[in-house]
Amino acid sequence: MNSLLSIKNLTVAVGAKVLVNNVSFDVPQGKIVAIAGGSGSGKTTIGLSVLRLLPSALSIKQGNIVFEGRDLLGLPVREMQYCRGARIGMVFQEPLSAFDPLFTVGQQLDEVLVAHTKLSREERYKKILETLTEVELPDPLRAYKSFPHQLSGGMRQRAMVAQAIVCNPSLIIADEPTSSLDVTLQIKIMELFARLKKKNMSILLIAHDLGMISHLADDVIILRQGEMVEKGLVSQVIGHPKHEYTKRLVEAFQ
Amino acid sequence: MKRNNNSRIHLAFASFRCNRMAMLCLWALVILYSLAIFADFVCPYSDRDENRDFSYCPPTAVEFLDQGHLVHPFVYGRTLTFNAVHRRVYVEDMTKKYPLRFFKEGRLFTVDAPGRFYLWGADARGRDLFSRIWYGARISLSIGLLGVSISFILGLLIGGIAGYYGGWVDSVLMRLCEMFMMIPGFYLMLALRAAVPENFNSVQVYGSVVVILALIGWASLARIIRGMVLSLRERDFVLVAKTMGVPDIVIICKHILPQTISFSCATLMLTVSSYILAEAGLSVVGLGIQDPISSWGNLLSDAMEIVPVIFAPWILLPGLFIFIAVMSFNVVGDALRDAFDPMFKEEVSV
Amino acid sequence: MSILHIQNVSKSFGNLRAVDGASVSLAPGEHLAIIGESGCGKTTLAKMMMGLIKPDTGSIKAEAHSLQMVFQDPYQSLDPLWNVREILKEALWRERALSAAQFQEKLEKILLAVGLTPQILERFPHEFSGGERQRIAIARALLASPKILVLDEAVSALDTLVQKQIIDLLKKLRQEFNLTTIFISHNLRLVRHFSDKIIVMYQGKIIEEGQVQAVLQSPSHPYTQQLLQAAFFTKLSL
After folding, report:
1. What is the ipTM of this complex?
2. What pTM does this model have?
3. Residues 6 or more apart whose Cβ sits within 8 Å of residue A138
4. What part of C 96-115 touches A (C-beta under 8 Å)?
């Protein structure tokens, strides 16, 4: 199977408590795969495991994470750092805490480019403005010069997506990207993700909102307290849920 | 109903107990304070017991062997002679043996007169340094605690009220803080000390030093508490308490100030250590506790001349204990702050 | 006979007009929904109803102590240093002369009513999940014997499954305790089966008002139409 990202038998635990138990799934190129579950289901832990950004108390007990043909768990630190940002972008739930309040948006996007590319200053500037336009920020130049707190919530979230895609990664991991936003802004971000998918970017979408998942994602994995309860095409799993838990989730969204 | 040991305070103390360095320092403090409290028992002499025949006598060795046989510990007598360059030399007199007496006259160990047992040497007037250090510990260690309790309460209340009410109350109180903070600490201390009447007896001097310390220390604490309270008063649980009709002062004391506990504990410890140093500073220049009462500071004032330091280096020992006490308070303060801090981190989402 | 009467209320913070000439009247048992996005003034209006903020102009008339509020963030509305017993007892501050046995009885009753057990009285907030904390917050609000329960985005921070549980709980409780609810949210879908009357706020003004079913069927204001579209867009569409 030529998947972009392939996770097999991933188990993560903190001490004796198992947070993620033997989870396996693939993210094909150019598709959106969603991990759905409530809090405590382990979905954020999976996202952090791919990037090897787990808090020190948690450890990966077993499993393989193969990305672009390479096993991420065995990668040396320098290469992993390159992966993060250049090959895999991450969008967090709370944009205000994901940005450094002391630097402008432009400076922070520049930081990512400096770390992963050898572009000149002019090229970086051009690239950043391009990316800010792509995420449909109304005034890219103003956003470039603004500090995070000067942007509204929706604009900040778009700026965060910009930071994730500025190096043209092949995979984006989005952890509850719309949870802190109003409903109308959620739609804008969803449209943005749909556009990214058209550019052949894969997205691993971590969320609890089945409605958004049903619109955006191709495949979905239902997670409950670390266990994979059901997985498959969105039309299958949400249209004809087999497991009890999935049925309850779907019902709650009617 | 089973006791729930899961409160944030319990969890913080459990985490503190895992910190080895902090526990070590805590035990060091316990030992220092115990020796100070039980100085009457632990020390062979009172702090005023002088004997000019033994001025700057070096530490007395305890002998366990008499001509090769193991005997009850004893010390030799000493006689004072002067050597060729008129320096004091104490020669052991093997003919006079004074056995160590334990638990005599309510003291852990002592020797019969006219023998003298100087565990850590003697000062200029022949007073036992060991005893003077532990009687002095009573002053040095307690002054810090008393000073801190006053400045702490002052700082919490003033900072709490300024932060909670804002407006003109805040402005007035903060200007007051700034007035105190403007003056460099040591000079403020000297100025306040100069205001104390000449004829105060030693107890009154002690009390005034406590008050002086409290007055120089409360302002910086108040300012920081005020900053924390400004953000805490917007928390939802404070708003809820207001809607329930809980009076402001109860909200401040039971909801807001407890949230500052992590910062407050650390600052409490650091302030005690700075007060110990401040008292030592005052006493070293002769403005604090006066002779004949000993404090670690005024014991060190003896060590300000080079000649005694070279020939009687044991008079520097009080400095070691100041160091141990200050370091221990600092380490414990840092460890307490670390132990409480995870409390305020947001929940990690899974 | 209205239990809440808000007449032409305005509030500004510096240059920002948070609430601009809002008027609404509520009859007993008439469940209200206030819908709007961030910054529309709904939270400011709620705080003015609760008496936490004073309006610049206009008046809010309600019986004294008849309103209680449940806040959005279950992690911030409970004091982390207090245990559940102390948190709940605070709600009875105005009745603090009660005996220990009377307190215990009231606390146990209310915990059972919100679906929790009396065993949790000695526990601390960090030992509970978001949904459980919100139940504790609801129990606390109910203990103060309000006539009106204001729910400020009370389920927005919870997972969807838990949201449904809490909304069902609230429906049960408002019948049991004879409450009128004011549900504040940015999500129209949630209020469809919960409230009778709806007002929509935008930039401090009330731009639409009416019965929930009517407004959802045919919203008159373009902003309401936008909100409606957004809310039902994220509904499952298969």
Report:
1. 0.89
2. 0.80
3. A155
4. none
